[in-house]
Amino acid sequence: MASYAVFAELYNQGKQNVYEIISAFVKELIVSKGIYQFDIKQMNNAIKEEYSFDLPDSVVKTSIKKIEGIIKKDGNYIVSNIDSVNREIDTQYEAELIQSNEAIIRKLTEYAMSKCSEEVDIELLSQSFCHFLLDETNGEKYSDIISAFIVSNKDDKEFRDQMNRIKAGVIIYSGLNYDNSPNVANVWKNDIVMFLETEVLFHLAGYHEDTFRNIFEDFYTLVNDINSYNRRTVIKLKFFEVTKNEIDVFFLKAEEIIKNRRIPNPSKKAMLSILNGCKSISDVQQKKTEFYAKLREKNITLDSYSQYYNPSNYRYNIEDTKYQHTVHREYEKEKLSYNLRLLSFVNIRREGPIYSNVENCKYLLITENSHILNLSNMIRDEYQYTPYPMAISLYHITNKLWVQLGKGLGNDVLPTSFDVVTKAQIVLSRYLDESIEIKYEEIKSKYSKNEIDENYVLEILANLREQAKTPEEIHEEEVDDILCSIHNDDLEAYIERREEEQNQKERIVQRNEELTSNLAKQKEMTSEKNRYLIKFQKELVIEKEIRLIEYEKEFEVQKSAKELVDLKVKNTSKRILNILLFCLVIYPIGVIASIQILSWNKVEPIVYVMGLIYALGIIIMKIKTGEEFNVQGVKIYINRYLTEWEYKKRGVSVEHIDVLNQKILSLREEIDGLVH
After folding, report:
1. In the predicted model, what is the mean pLDDT of the chain?
2. Closest residue by Cα to residue 94 from 8, 17, 184, 174
3. Has residue 224 got a pLDDT over 90?
């Protein structure tokens, strides 16, 4: 798979000619394998073995001509100087891609093992995954698991980028799958008629929802681009008369469903789309008119050729019963002759097989019918030399036209079908439709045999309709349910599962009723508990409020006593301080007066004694209080002494007042918590 990502990388680097891209791979083989001599078959086999490219010999031959230093002699190619061969492939990038692919395969294997009830064939799973990405088939085993895996990882950017890198290479390489003479980036010039099958026309009308309508519009835009480039209609879009008959019958069935009020097949999205909004037969007929108007608007016309069963064309007619083995169910056998008729008409118009490319095949059927595509490939393989197929899918023709126009893969807006996640969603949607169709046919059979009643049929059909999903409706969350529905397409098993689901729903309802009853009882018990709790809380609040009142009273008494003591101490301290200041002022005056009256000799001892008393007072005060002997220090000392003495005398405690205050605050918080 890494080779295809490298293929796309070379294309985006400017090698928009297929031969140049193949020559880059040939150069890499010559240098990495040390090849000095080879013939076309040997080189083609080496390319297939190393890179898994299945190429026509003519493509390899032309690619070799573009490599300098290679000489052709006697049918062999000789490398004259291997050192002169310029390698163009980034081997480190290729190695990283291989490593990334191996990690994805491991992740896919783990996913498959978790989803499959039977043992997983890892080798087959890996092959199916490669084939899925390379668009070789969608019908292999595990393709549903692979699609589910891709959808489940669609939000993983690294995973999605890696898948789309591989897909990009496949888109470019697809021009080689059906083309013996690829010529990328040369615009289509030859006339061709493309016959559109019923499903493709329904895509145009939007009967299969947005994804398929977008896919058709991508194809139609490319057709217009080629016609505009050539300034004439080189690609004509038509539909066979038998296709018109099938469409008319389809609308008649829609009228019958409206008329008889029947429930349509839930797997037929086109029918559901037509019936949507229709209340009468005239509404269906109006939609039919609008459908053909859309075809005319797109210049898609009815095929006017009328000689398909002319004897001169018998040798090209391929309607043969030998292909009966390709169908397995009764209702599919009815479609076999119609499918063969479409292919036969193309073969008749071509006048037998055309061994050329798509541009030169003159007539081509574009279909989304997997049985027609399988028949076309089966008939193609019967020829000794493989001709161009009579039918290809809308996806493959879109790829071819895109590359033919040299659009490149670096564009922001790529065709819807190029996205690998979109493909995975389409595959899951189709598997789901097939599963629903099988159940629908079995229901019809059982009802016709009176094995189930009408009400039960209506219930099952309604549920099947809920299961049907368009590609854009398929997301990661629905993947498990979709896989379950796909893997259980047996009606009996489905009915048993539906009954089990119904029983489970009934058990859930019963359980819910029991839970509701228990909840009511618990609520009643809780209500009784709440009443007791409320009563207890009220009593507790009253008790705490009484205690709060007591604390507040005691607090007020203590606070008032403190305020009185503080006021008394303040006044007493002021008086004492004033007396001391007065003494300090009077003392020197008295000393001076005594000296004048009595003489210094008599007064001197008194002065010394008073000075000694003063000095002792300073020392004692400093030792006892630590305060300086000044007015402020004396004031502090007096206040402190008087306060302690008065507090003790009147039983006032500052610590007790603080404790009471904390208790009051705490009780108030507790009461608020209980009340609120």
Report:
1. 79
2. 8
3. yes
Place of tokens 């009882």: 521
The tokens for 489 are: 């397409």
Asked whether residue 573 carries a pLDDT value surpassing 70, the answer given is: yes
Residues 6+ apart with CB under 8 A from 6: 89, 90, 93, 94, 97, 169
Q: Where are the alpha helices (DSSP H) in 261-369?
A: 269-275, 281-297, 330-350
Q: How far is CA 143 from the centre of its chain?
A: 20
Q: Rounded distance, CA 340 to CA 370, Å?
A: 13
DSSP string, 504-540: HHHHHHHHHHHHHHHHHHHHHHHHHHHHHHHHHHHHH
Reported as type and span, the H/E element at residue 114 is helix 91-115
Q: How many residues does the chain have?
A: 676
Adjacent-strand bridge partners of 239: 302
What kind and span of H or E run contains 365? strand 363-367
- Contacts of residues 532-537 at CB distance under 8 Å and 24 or more positions apart, as own/partner, are 537/674
User: What is the arithmetic mean of pLDDT over 578-602?
Assistant: 72
Residue 461's nearest CA partner among 268, 275, 263 is 263
Q: Angle formed by the axes of helices 654-675 and 491-598, to 10°?
A: 160
**β-pairing verdict for 363-367 and 391-393:** parallel
**Residues β-bridged to residue 195:** 238, 365
CA 521 vs CA 514, 527, 582: distances in Å: 11, 10, 89
Query: 195: buried, middle or exposed (CB in 10 Å: 19+, 13-18, 0-12)?
Result: buried
Q: How confident is the model at residue 125 (pLDDT cuts 50, 70, 90)?
A: confident
Tokens of 105: 């395969």
Distance CA 419, CA 150 (A): 11
Nearest C-alpha neighbor of 23 from the set 54, 62, 72, 76: 62
pLDDT tens digits along 297-326: 999 999 999 999 999 998 888 887 666 666
Q: Rounded to whole angstroms, how far apart are CA atoms 142 and 159?
A: 19
User: Which residues fall within 8 angstroms of residue 635, CB to CB, at 6 or more apart?
Assistant: 573, 577
When mean pLDDT is compared across 7-21, 505-519, 565-579, 661-675, the lowest value belongs to 7-21
Alpha-carbon gap, residue 457 to 435, rounded angstroms: 17
Question: Residue 38 contacts by C-beta under 8 Å, 6 or more apart in sequence?
Answer: 46, 76, 77
Residues 192-221 pLDDT 10s:
999 999 999 999 999 987 888 999 999 999
For 268, 429, 671, the CA distances from 479, given in Å and listed in that order, are: 20, 11, 59
Whether 359 contacts 192, CB under 8 Å: yes
Rounded to whole angstroms, the maximal C-alpha distance in the chain is 176
Read off the pTM.
0.64
455 within 8 A of 410, measured Cβ to Cβ? no
Q: Indicate if the alpha-carbon torsion angle 315, 321, 324, 325 is positive or negative.
A: negative
pLDDT higher than threshold 50 for residue 431: yes
DSSP 394: H
Helix (H) or strand (E) holding 78: strand 76-79
Report how far residue 168's alpha carbon sits from residue 162's, in angstroms, rounded to the nearest whole number.
10
* Residue carrying structure tokens 């990690």: 103
Q: What's the one-letter identity of residue 324?
A: Q
Nearest to 184 by CA among 14, 34, 67, 42: 14
Distances (CA, A) of 359 to 354, 409, 511: 11, 22, 68
- Nearest alpha carbon to residue 30 among 84, 97, 95: 84
Give me 502's structure tokens: 């119904």
Find residue 391's DSSP bridge partners. 365
Q: How many Å apart are CA 215 and CA 212, to the nearest integer?
A: 5
